[in-house]
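step: validate -> pass
step: tokenize input -> pass
step: predict -> running
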Amino acid sequence: MTQVDFDALIVGAGFGGIYQLHLLLKQGLSVKVIDAASDVGGTWYWNRYPGAMSDTESYIYRYSWDKEDLIQYHWKEHYVKQPEVLAYLEHVVERYDMRKHMQFNTEMENAQYDEANNVWVISCSTGEKFTVRYLITALGLLSKTNYPNIPGLPRFQGEMYHTGKWPRQHDFKNKRVGIIGNGSTGVQIITAISKEVKQLISFQRTPQYSVPSGDGPVSKEYRDSINSRYDQIWKQVRNSKVCFGFEESDVPTMSVSAEERERIFEDAWQRGNGFRFMFWTFNDISINEEANEEACKFIRKKIAQTVKDPEKARKLTPHEYYARRPLCDAGYYEQFNRPNVDIISLKENPIESITENGIQLSDGTHCDLDVLIFATGFDAVDGNFNRIAIKGRKGESLKEHWAKTGGPTTYLGCFVPDFPNLMMVTGPNSPFTNLPPTLEVQVEFIADIITQAEKNSQSKLHVNGNSNGESKHAGPVIEALPEAEDNWTRLCEELSASSLFKKTDSWIFGANVPGKKHTVMFYFGGLAEYRKELQKIVDGGYTGFKPF
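step: predict -> pass
step: emit ->
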């Protein structure tokens, strides 16, 4: 058992953890990054499943803070795939010589705030203990895998995988594959492997609205155009709502003629991208039922035109609101025209049990399978926090704190009362936006508040120091006030109240995990408004925090 002291410990070596390390090192702090994985990447380390790609275009699914690297680092297609994202993050770590500050195969098992000494004591899977002044979690929104509770699951004798923890190698040739789940990951993996398997059955609970991604190779001229406009591009992204690199519409759906609506929807369909289809076309699809239905009718028509088998088309056609995370694909609906690809609606014919050789359905049908894939998503946002004992003042855990507040609550998505010097990157009630730009904003705010607290601490050190040069001051305490958490929670609830997202059974509100409370877990005001909220807090002398 060793005990090592640092100014800050960052848990997670993905997009957020890497940038947080970079900024804190620039401030002269001693910093350690730990990660349960064997290398950098975060979500992109684990999500190696076939077809895994970002649904954000390549030119902005990266860091904005190194313009030279933005211009020089190559991307060859409109969307980056998992190996390319992972290679990019590895490149950034090497470029800034950050690996020496990182420790892998090391999982945080618990963290306890020592109030007397104003430090966090973190115990790890390696047996090590770290004592730090600042504990920063960069665990990722989508990293705690969610397995459905299906009877007989341990009995299955074939190959079994979860898309969130994929093996480095697989071979599905001439195998019968069942995929449970058809959200973003399910759509991607179905599209990717349909052509290589003997048989594929999609076990679908809820049909999805998905639009083409518009992926494909980029030309040198396109790349040069992006490079010449990066300042303008990032300015637009930071001052937008969802941060996907397009101008969001200010036109209501029903303010134009039916013919004009059709033209705009068709244009968006041809350009590609789910977020573009929802937010570039019109400004009220996510909040107005009549507007939403117009978008639904267009996508339903496309499904009917694409899928040749009427029964498959019927099962694939959604009738709920178009109000889940907007999806895009590289030919999802087309895969069901293959004779080896079928679909089972679990609402019509539920799974009775998993058997040694496949899946038994409630109507008596048995689906023989060699491979079972769970594309059932994640216990999103707070899942990782609830499985780790993070204890603040008086030994209260985050899980206990959130049980009292009625759900995962924070101030600004980053801070929790009674958990001093604990900071979260994309914690509960962070913006519902493209993640890399949002991560940058939060990481920079955390770095800035630490800088300010350190300056204040040095001033107190000077005032409180005794004749021996020793200090009676235990260091800065950055802690949100309970009323600030309450106000932020209320604001998030108000912003989500008019959203149709709230009216669907979506992971965005925790509905994908049985027994999990349906609650607000995101700030729906957009990144531009979120940045304004942060600036108001800074201008007010860090309102919402105890004096530090």
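step: describe -> The longest strand covers residues 3-11.
step: cleanup -> pass
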